[in-house]
Structures are given as C-alpha cells and as structure tokens.
Design brief:
Blueprint: H1 2-10, H2 23-84, H3 89-113, H4 119-124, E1 126-129, H5 131-141, H6 143-148, E2 152-157, E3 164-167, H7 168-184, E4 191-199, E5 207-214, H8 246-256, E6 260-266, E7 270-278
Bound molecules: adenosine-5'-diphosphate.
Residues 181-182, 185, 214, 216-219, 223, 227, 232-234, 237, 242-248, 271 line the site of adenosine-5'-diphosphate.
Length: 285
C-alpha cells in the first residue's frame, strides 16, 4: 500500500521494489545504492578534513595577525612622537596619515581577534555606563573625519537616559564602528543623525535604542542579509577601504549584551542602524 512505502522510507529504508521484480533489477538498484553510499561517505570525509584544515589555517592566521599588532602600534607611537615636534604642513599630513592608519589597522586586528577574548575577562569589564556621554565621545573622536568630508553629525538624546549595564570599552568600539561606517559610506556634504531613545518600562527594566542614520550610499538588497558576516563587504562599497570585520564585531558585542541590531537601508538614499539594548538585564553568558 502507498502508506506502507512512505512508512518504510520514513523509518530509514533507502529504496524499495514492488513485486514482481527481476533479479537484474534488484542487483542494479543495490549497486546504485552502494555507489551512492560510497560517494556520501567520501564527501563526509572530505568535508571533515576541509573543516579541520580551515580551522588550522584560521588559527595560524590569527597568530600572524596578532603578531602584526605590536609593530603597528610602535609605528603609530613613533608617528605620534614626531607629530609633537614642529613639522611643516606636508610632513604633518603624512605623519597623521601614518598614525591614523596604524590606529585603524590595530582596531581591525582587535575586532578580528575579539572572539578569542575570554568570557571571564569580558564579564569583569561590565559596569553601569552613561551611554549618552559615551556616544558623545565617539562622535567627538570622529569629528575630524566628518569635518574633512563636510558631513554634519546631529546628536539628540531623550531626557534622563538611565545607566546601562555594559562593557564600556567594547560597546564604545561598537558605536565607533557604526559611526565610522556612516561617515565612510556617506558622500561629501551628507548628514548623519544619531539618536538615543529610552523605552521604559519594558520587560525587566526597559530598553534603549541607539540609532545612527546616514544619507549615504545605502546597502543593496542582496547584501543586507550578509553584512554582519565576518569579511563580507557590500558590492557597492568596494571603492572604500575595509576588511569587512566591523559589523560582525558590532553584532557580537550587541549579542553579548543581550541586545539586537537592526538595519534599514535604501540604495543611494541612506541607512539606519539601530542598536536595542536592555537596560537592567544582567550580562547573559
Ligand atoms: P567594511 O566597512 O570594512 O567593509 P563592515 O563589516 O563594517 O566592513 O561592513 C560590512 C559592509 O556593510 C560594508 O562593506 C558595506 O557594504 C556595508 N555597510 C556598513 N555600514 C554601512 C553604511 N552606513 N552605509 C552603507 N553600507 C554600509
């Protein structure tokens, strides 16, 4: 009966023959199945060995990347020392460029190696933080870049934003990454709006939303699902420099805080990145 065939397949039969059948047909079917199983076994073995070789390569890449950090930092420090001396304008520009690049590369390295941080260490760094001044600091840090591109940054926070329990350094870097992207992917003369809104009460104690809206190039529909993957770069943004690690870092940090990150975007119009963060929910590990 048809239901018997379905039942047989459901509980694990590979195939079936209905009577009457010839011996040749049986042999051919069994041969085919045996061949298929062999291929599946081989593919499984190959996948396993590929996984382990990817893992090995990843570990050695991380070691190399980690070792790059010290010379980069020392390059940056030397440029900074020379910057303090009086230089002419051209030399000043070159030194600033060396300094900025070394800082940028060091940050990429930190973002890439972030998943290696021990959770215990992260937990120890959690405390109640004043988000409004943290966001203001991140904006101040990027003032120069925004001035250079003639991009106006407008910041508004709803009154009495409560303290938020978070890892200050990591969260600061996450916000800096989002702001940095907004500036990087917005052409000259654009606008970036940063807002903090608190929604109280919500579940155990409310939620705050940090939203960064730009008038930049936007994100293509086919990219939007993938931009939080490590090393993924949008197809319309390849003319800008980047390693595709910023947003994966941001997402990891937001996830660690029990929050969510949302994105809305329209190509050639702009993007809005919103981070939703629970206020009093303690760190979940
Ligand atoms: P990177 O900027 O180094 O490419 P990110 O991980 O920070 O890496 O971002 C991944 C991709 O998401 C970018 O390549 C870009 O396509 C897209 N993206 C991120 N932020 C913005 C933004 N504000 N406007 C437009 N595209 C963005």
């Amino acid at each position: 009966m048809p239901e018997d065939r379905v039942y047989g397949l459901e509980i694990g039969a590979d195939d079936y023959l209905t009577k009457p059948f010839s011996l040749n047909e049986l042999i051919l079917r069994v041969d085919k199945l045996a061949e298929k199983k062999k291929v599946i076994r081989r593919l499984k073995e190959e996948t396993k060995s590929l996984h382990s070789s990817i893992h090995e390569k990843e570990s050695s890449l991380k070691r190399v990347v980690h070792d790059l950090k010290n010379p980069l930092l020392s390059m940056g420090a030397s440029a900074k020392r020379m910057l303090r001396r009086n230089q002419n304008e051209e030399e000043l520009k070159i030194l600033e460029n060396i300094y900025d690049s070394s800082i940028r590369l060091t940050r990429w390295i930190d973002d890439m190696l972030f998943s290696d941080h021990s959770l215990q260490k992260i937990k120890e760094g959690m405390r109640e933080v004043e988000i409004k001044s943290m966001v203001q600091q991140a904006i101040d840090l990027l003032k120069e870049a925004s001035r250079e591109k003639k991009i106006e940054i407008h910041f508004e926070a709803s009154p009495s934003i409560p303290l938020v329990y978070c890892h200050e350094q990591l969260f600061f870097r996450a916000i800096e990454n989002l702001l940095g992207n907004a500036l990087k992917y917005t052409p000259e003369g654009g606008k970036v709006d940063v807002t903090i809104t608190s929604y109280l009460p919500w579940r155990d104690g409310g939620v705050i939303e940090i939203s960064i809206k730009d008038t930049g190039i936007g994100i293509l529909e086919e990219d939007i699902e993938k931009i939080f993957d490590p090393f993924y770069r949008g197809r319309n943004s390849l003319s800008e420099t980047g390693a595709g690690l910023g947003l994966s870092f941001v997402k990891e940090v937001v996830d660690l805080h029990g929050g969510r990150i949302l994105v809305q975007s329209e190509p050639r119009k702009g993007s809005i990145f919103s981070v939703l963060l629970p206020i009093r929910v303690k760190f979940k590990l």
